[in-house]
Every structure is written in structure tokens, then in C-alpha cells.
Amino acid sequence: MSWNDERVNTLKKLWAEGHSASQIAKQLGGVTRNAVIGKVHRLGLSGRATPSRPVKRPPRLARPKPRFMADGTAAVAAPAAPAPVPALAIERVSAIKPLPPLLVDGTPATILTLRDTMCKWPIGDPADPKFAFCGRKSDCGPYCAEHAQVAFQPARKREARKSEYDYVRRIAG
Q1: What does the alpha-carbon distance between residue 1 and residue 118 come to, in Å, rounded to a whole number?
Q2: How much is the pTM?
Q3: Whole-number Å distance between alpha carbons of 47 and 49
């Protein structure tokens, strides 16, 4: 296949109209997409009248699934209001007290003094010189029994705590 004047003019026309290299190769026949791209570069055809890519459409929003009553009619559901959080639950969030670091030889556990059997729960701000780790005995895993209860919670308990936190934030601010 050779690039004669007629094929080059067709290439220029299709390229200016915004066709992709694959579309041009199909119309010309006997050439590959890469051959079209190479010829376009050799001819210096960089500008296009229209983009070759389709315009992005906004994402489709999911429609709510209709709910049906026992008699087959569609039930109209009102937006669910957030469930009120009991006052006891809010107190429980603030009831979790941080454990002070265990002192080993009069000093708290640091990254240099931690061992495999010690709790690695961070206490304080890492930028603070008083930053330490819990240092208590860890039977299984990286934390002691008290910190493991805080770190590893069932999903329902985590969700309840998150909703309590959101509720407190809404009230406070």
C-alpha cells in the first residue's frame, strides 16, 4: 500500500473532521491505525476541528427501587429520619479512658524499647517528646486486652459508635 495524493487528501479531510485513526484506517482500507497515526505526524496534522473522543456524559444516578405492599400497589416511602441516639450511648463514648503507658524501669515504652510481647498502642502525639506506647503485655496480636477491645470491634458496634459521633457533632456544631 502506498500513500498516493488521493489517499493523503482523504486522510487530511477525515482527520480535520475529527475521525479517529481507527475510523480513518477502516475507510481507507489496507492500512493500519498505526500507519494512519504515523502519516498524520509526518504531515504535521496536529490540530483538529472536533475531538476524536466522545464527550463524557454525567454519571447516571441510581434510581430508588420501588417497594410494593402486600396488595401489589407501590408504597411511597418518606425519607428516613435519623434515629435518635440514647443519652447513655453518648456517655459511653466519653467513658473510654486512655490507659497511661506502662513504665518499664521508670520510663515509658518507646519505639526503641518495644518488644514483640508488648502492646504497641500509641499514646499521645508522635511529635510530642512525651509520646510513648502502652507497653503492657500483649497475649495475641499487637495490643493488650484493653486496647484490643477498642481496636477490634464488631461492625455493628463500629457503626453505632460512628452514628453517635455524628450525632454529637450535629448537636455541638
Answers
A1: 75
A2: 0.35
A3: 7
- Res. 153: pLDDT tops 70: yes
163 φ/ψ angles, rounded to the nearest 5 degrees = -65, -35
d(CA 99, CA 167): 26
SS (H, E, C) the chain: CCCCHHHHHHHHHHHHHCCCHHHHHHHHCCCCHHHHHHHHHHHCCCCCCCCCCCCCCCCCCCCCCCEECCCCCEECCCCCCCCCCCHHHHHHHHHCCCCCCCEECCEEECCCCCCCCECCCEECCCCCCCCEECCCECCCCCCCHHHHHHHCCCHHHHHHHHHHHHHHHHHHC
| pLDDT tens column, 87-125 | 554 444 444 566 677 666 667 888 888 888 888 888 888
Cell 482527520 sits at which residue?
15
Q: Which three cell numbers stand for residue 55?
A: 464527550
Cell readout for 87 is 443519652
Integer Cα distance of 173 and 171 in angstroms: 6
